[in-house]
Structure formats: structure tokens, C-alpha cells
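Sequence only, no structure available. Ideas?
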Amino acid sequence: MQSLADSSEAGGSVVSGYMVETSDLDAAEVPPAVLHSARGALAVAVTHHRVAGAAWGQYVVMYLLVEPAGASGPSVEL
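Reply:
I predicted one. C-alpha cells follow.
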């Protein structure tokens, strides 16, 4: 299986991943790098888990951002 770093180098892209834990999806923080990305593709996945000993579970939001190397400009392609 090819790693994200290998995929990034082979495709001439920059691949970044971010994870946010929250109990309220409406209030979940969006990482600044995702908000301010010049161009790229974004994948978002949401799951949940309960930490051992916790009373209830929480959401986990995962962001995968793939940007062309040297990207610039104001738009984000989703």
C-alpha cells in the first residue's frame, strides 16, 4: 500500500490531514489550513467514539486536503 507521502510526491501534490474532536458538529472547528487553502480537493469524514471511562461518546471529524504543489489563488475546489 502506498503511503500518503508517496502519493503526494508522485502526484506533485501536498497532502495534509487534520482531526477535530467535538460533542457538537455545528460548533466543530474547521482547521485554518482548510479554510484558507488556495486550491485543492477536500474530503471530510465523520465518525464517533467513546473514550474508555467517559460517560458518552464524541464525534471525530477528519479532513484530508490535497493541494497542487505551489498552489496560489483565492478559490478552493471542493
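The helical segments are 4-11, 32-35.
Hope that gets you unstuck.
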